[in-house]
Every structure is written in structure tokens, then in C-alpha cells.
Design goal:
Layout (H helix, E strand, L loop, with lengths): L2 H15 L7 E4 L2 E9 L2 E8 L15 H4 L1 E7 L5 E7 L7 E5 L5 E5 L10 E7 L3 E6 L13 E7 L2 E7 L4 E5 L2 E7 L9 H4 L19 E5 L4 E6 L20 E7 L5 E6 L21 E9 L3 E9 L15 E4 L8 E4 L13 E4 L8 E4 L20 E4 L7 E4 L1
Parallel strand pairs: 1-11
Antiparallel strand pairs: 2-3, 2-13, 3-9, 4-5, 4-10, 6-7, 7-8, 8-9, 10-11, 12-13, 14-15, 16-17, 18-19, 20-21, 22-23, 24-25
Amino acid sequence: MTRSRTAWLVLLAGLLAAPSISQAIDLPLPGTTLRLVRSGSGEKLVLVLNDASIPAPGQGNADNPATAGLRVTLFGHDAPGEIVDLPAPAGLGRPGWKYGTTGFVRYRFRNGSAPGGISPIRSVVLREGKGLRVVAKDVGLGLTGPQGLVGVRIEMGSIRLCALFAGEAVLRDEAGMFVAKNAPAPGLVECTDEALFGVPCDASATCGGTCSDGSLCGGVPGLGLGCRCVAGDQPCGGTSPVCNGTCPAGEECANVGGLPEPSCACVPTGSTGCGTVETCSEGDCPAGTGCFLTRFTCCGGVDVFGCGCATEPPPPPCGGPCPPGMICVPNVPGFAEGCYPMLCTIGGTPCPSGSTCVVPPGFSFEVCVPTPCTGGSGYPTCDGTCDPGLSCQDFVQFGGACYCAP
């Protein structure tokens, strides 16, 4: 085994074990008004989202715009993939943000120098229970001709609001002007770039596209399972992978995990579906099953892990823990599942307790080698002696041997 191949195995195992990154909170909304005007006398953007569900985070919340800032992103069609950002930076003052709580939470941003000064945005008003209004002196987009549709995304910390102004909502669309009002949000499930460019679900590369009939876009395109629109007017178990189907009263359709495509099942309302958690012990499943780490082998032998509901835990990879200084690598191209030595450097990169950095016979580089027990009756009794802090333990999955381990 070459040094580069061993390093790749160790890196791969680390990547498979890494926790997933928390995602933003997406809130697709109907669009009230979007007005973009560019003329010889200047530019102006007016965006209005009148929706009581728009959050106005409290002053101590990390998502409040005075602390996190606010960013408006526009998705246009002057050129393929035209995306522009208009930021309203964090900070109290004038120019800047003001916070008020007279009967309701309210944030106001002002910049009288727009499009100069600290932002191209002139004003923002975010009011609890009412919605959001943005006025800018820069439209961002080129507006060199008709846009067809324009998507808008507003970000405040982990919160992402979005609306897609398209179809019958567009009242005027020409060079220098785009005006739209009362845009619905059918099929706009996430605030992805694809959705806000109006990419149809079946043409989506990430299953973040739109469905014109109000159904949801889902699938696992990376594994050869294409994106498709899934309508919710059918029993829960048949709406994988978006899990928007119907359930009896008091229950809801949840993602209960499984690979390559998640399964759906009815669980008590308020449950956390097994397929939506980072730590499987936190996930909920239908009665008689539990949430366990599951594995799916694909793509030339690479294993993908996730949480899924099952009647019993799956067998552990490699048959159990590896001896000290070794790492479990399941099913990679050219290698069977097993325990492989970790790389080290004598006098440099240390090995875990219970192993030593050496150059084994036939190797041209340093690896960690587990420390055998001294004396005793051997495997499977493993009653030999070890250094203080270690005990003699059996490792059946490594051919049946006794090693010193913490």
C-alpha cells in the first residue's frame, strides 16, 4: 500500500465521520411588490413582503439585522446566472440600524447617502407581524431587456426569506423596468439559487427547483436518482423523498431516513424524524423501530452514512472498534472493509495511546502499530499485562488478537 493511498484512506474515513453543517432556515413567501427602475434620472428598487410570518428577532438574538446585517440578493436574466447582492451592514446609528419595541419589535435601517455611503440601500423597515420593506437607489441587475422573472432572497444571519416574481404577477417587463405584484409561492420550497432562477424541478441539479403545481421538488441526483415533483395528496409512505403526504389525525409525515433515498412514515405530531438529525439517538421513528446509523455503498465502493429507522442496530463497521493506532475504513475501491494503520512521523505526529510509530518491514514510511499485551494466555482470554492506564483487550475483528488499549 503506497503512502498516498494510505493517506487517502485516512482522509476518507475522517470525512465520512465528520458531522454535517447546520443549514439556514429557509422561508419561501408570496411576493407583495417588486419594482426595479433604471432611467437617465437614476435607479430605484422597492421590495415589499407583507407577511405576518416574517420573523423580527429580538435584540439579543444573533439573527437580528442590527447585529447580523441584512443582504438582499437579486436573481435576474440579463446574463446566464446573473446574481447581485445589496447589503445593509450591521451596526446601530445613522446611517445604520435602529431598534424599537413599542408594542412590537421593529428594525429600521437608514442611509441618506445611498447609493453611496455604507450601502446602496436607502431604507429597510422590518416590523413584527407586518413584514419587510426595502428601498434602494441601485437596482443591481442590468435590466438591458425583459427579465421574464426575478427572484429575491433576503438574509439575516441564519434566516433566509425569498420570493419569486414570475408569471401573471409580472405587470411590466422591459429594458430599464421590471414591475411585479402579488406573486404566489407555489412549489417554492427552499431559497436556493435554482429555485430563484425559476429552474424547473426536473432540470434541477440539486433538487432545489420549482414545481408549478404546488408540489415539492425532491430526489437524490448525486446518486443517479433524478429530481421530481412530489404531490402531497397521497399517503405519507409514498411521498419519498420530500415526505409531504397525509397521515391520521395527531400524526405528521416525517423523513425517517434510510439510504439512498429517505423513507417517509407517520409519527406523532411534533416528532423529530430520524432522517433529519445529526446524531441518530435524537431521531424519532414509528413504533417498534429505532433510529440507527445506516450505510449505503455506491459510487465504486464508497460508503455513505446516514440515520435511518430499523428494528435493530446494523452490525458495526469492521466488526467493532479497531486496535489503537488503526482506523476503520469501510469498502473503498480496491480495499476490503477493515482496520488500516494510521500515518505518523517518528518524533513528530504522535500515535494514540496503546500504539507506537514505526517503519514496518516492507514499508517505506511510518505508521502506527498497536502494542501487543505481554504474557498471559493470549486470545480470547487476553489476560496479559500492559503499561499503566492500559488494559489487555481482545480484538476479534482484527483476526483475534490481544492488544493494550485505554
